[in-house]
Amino acid sequence: MAIKLHGSWMSTATLRVGATLYEKGLDFELVPPFGQVPAFEDGDLKLFESRAITKYIAYKYKEQGTELVGANFSEMPIIGVWMEVEAHHFAGPSTKLVWELCIKPMIGIPVDETVVEEATGKLNGVLDVYEARLAKNKYLGGDEFSLADLHHLPNIRYILMTPKASLFTSHPHVSRWWSDISSRPAWTKAAALSDAAIPKQA
Ligand SMILES: N[C@@H](CCC(=O)N[C@@H](CS)C(=O)NCC(=O)O)C(=O)O
């Protein structure tokens, strides 16, 4: 097996890469490491940064599995815009909420309510923009599912387990989009592995 994903199913960044590999129907080995994850090996190529890895998979295996970066050249720029929106506007506040409300309680560190409220306000503003976009488009990149949607899956999954789930449920078009993208078989498979990796509260 040539592809190795160094990571943990609990990690949002590892989940982003795992869901992409499943969309492409690729075989891979998950290698549990220490330090920042994910890291990725495909033969001699070694990569880190989950979004760079998903883009590599989408282009290298373009002819296989789900098309993730646009079948036509004309679709690629809009998908690219929404991948950037995720990375530069959505990821910041949503990752803060995952850390404060999911990871800190799991490892026994007190939650910083100031950070939670600031991140909640910022994420709500971002989701207002998504709501308008998704009122007119089935997916962020247009008519088809793409990496622009997939990159959101891990953080939304964790936030929906917290009292801040209402950020998403209060936006009807965002909720419709989440129901659609989270019911894809590749994501269902990756999320089930993540569920199994999360320590259960006594
Ligand atoms: N921007 C990086 C973020 C990676 C990241 O934050 N990984 C976390 C888990 S989701 C981690 O490995 N933390 C442990 C550490 O930094 O040692 C990516 O998308 O790959």
Automatic annotation (TrEMBL):
Pfam families in UniProt: GST_C, GST_N
- Output a single Gene Ontology CC term carried by this record: cytoplasm
- Domain of life the protein comes from: Eukaryota
Question: CDD domains given for it?
Answer: GST_C_Phi (cd03187)
Q: Where is the GST N-terminal domain?
A: 1-65
Q: Which residues cross the membrane?
A: none
Broadest EC class assigned to this enzyme? transferase
Which keywords describe this protein according to UniProt?
Transferase
What is one Gene Ontology biological process annotated in the Swiss-Prot or TrEMBL record? glutathione metabolic process
- Report which reactions are catalysed by this protein: RX + glutathione = an S-substituted glutathione + a halide anion + H(+)
Q: Which InterPro entries match?
A: Glutathione-S-Trfase_C-like, Glutathione-S-Trfase_C_sf, Glutathione_S-Trfase, Glutathione_S-Trfase_N, GST_C, GST_Phi_C, Thioredoxin-like_sf
* GO molecular-function terms, A-Z: glutathione binding; glutathione transferase activity
The enzyme's E.C. designation? 2.5.1.18
GST C-terminal domain: residues covered: 72-202
Q: Does the keyword Transferase apply?
A: yes
What's this protein's family per the entry?
A: Belongs to the GST superfamily. Phi family.
Protein name from the UniProt record? glutathione transferase
